[in-house]
Amino acid sequence: xxxxxxxxxxxxxxxxxxxxxxxxxxxxxxxxxxxxxxxxxxxxxxxxxxxxxxxxxxxxxxxxxxxxxxxxxxxxxxxxxxxxxxxxxxxxxxxxxxxxxxxxxxxxxxxxxxxxxxxxxxxxxxxxxxxxxxxxxxxxxxxxxxxxxxxxxxxxxxxxxxxxxxxxxxxxxxxxxxxxxxxxxxxxxxxxxxxxxxxxxxxxxxxxxxxxxxxxxxxxxxxxxxxxxxxxxxxxxxxxxxxxxxxxxxxxxxxxxxxxxxxxxxx
Length: 267
Ligand SMILES: [Zn+2]
Known about the structure:
By secondary structure, the protein is mainly α. The chain contains ten helices and four strands, in the order αααββαααβαβααα. The site of zinc ion has 7 residues, from loops.
């Protein structure tokens, strides 16, 4: 093909136009490039005494399915770039490709964070001093607190989670998923445990301070006793429900044991 110049191609086209007539009507359908390729090759061989078939003159002229395949991502690494474009309304970070097509590159707007300022969440409340220090600190105690933060949270919970969990999903590989059947609710049981059962959740709050620490440590022996005592003091000082359960504790203490079953807490 390399040795064919424009003039050669013109001569080739002229020769085909003069000599070749389709012998059968359906050969027109086989004429895929505007000339019958087999016949074109025949003429070419006669003119140039060559054996090679003529490749398509320009692959882009071919139907898509007949063009040579080229992997569009060959030798290319797809990168979204850094996720560093802040929403002007809520400061959430985005990739530049996430901007709304109706907005400009210089003033990008996003629709998947705050709906362009339509949704405004109140700022998080500042936690009590001890909790803030543990959340933000760099001491070893802070690090282990953050590492076990879910267990510390569960140790001080007033209620348990009432759900039917789909464990086929929670134990599957890949990103962590949590799927439940039916409704999610909080389960608050009686203030006194079942016979021979340890105190759990709100049942712990009706004991004196020292007993509370010991009961929680008995349920969570791997947690730090000092941190546990500090958190307990903080929660007793700041949590509104603690006073309610303290009051229940005092009433229970003043009530004869046989009547304690009748003490109720209304939230
Ligand atoms: Zn936003």
